[in-house]
TrEMBL record:
Organism: Comamonas nitrativorans
CDD domains: GRX_family (cd02066)
Designated name of the protein: Glutaredoxin domain-containing protein
PROSITE patterns cross-referenced by the UniProt entry: GLUTAREDOXIN_2 (PS51354)
Pfam families: Glutaredoxin
InterPro entries for this protein: Glutaredoxin (IPR002109), Thioredoxin-like_sf (IPR036249)
Highest taxon above the source species: Bacteria
Domain Glutaredoxin: residue ranges: 3-60
Coiled coil stretches, renumbered: none
């Protein structure tokens, strides 16, 4: 599983998302909105208006899934660890 993070400089939750991935040894790709992807292209990829960052996706063998923001990723990872226990 790879985490794909769309964020921007100076975004606290973007930084927290990267730190969470590092702490949990999750591979991640960080893309900067406005440099690596336009806000319009990100909104098209998410499929709804983007009002906050980060926007997070998970990529695995089945494909790529939209997760949401930082809190959504934390919840998703917690559910995965409970299911594996």
């Amino acid at each position: 599983m790879e985490v794909i993070i769309y964020g921007k400089a100076g975004c606290t939750n973007c930084d927290k998302t990267r730190m969470l991935c590092q702490i949990q040894s999750l591979p991640f790709q960080y893309l900067t909105v406005g440099e690596d992807i336009s806000a319009e292209a990100l909104q098209e990829q998410v499929g709804q208006p983007v009002r906050s960052l980060p926007q997070i996706f998970l990529r695995n063998d089945e494909g790529t899934t939209y997760v949401g923001g930082y809190d959504d990723l934390r919840t998703h990872l917690r559910q995965l660890s409970l299911a594996a226990a």
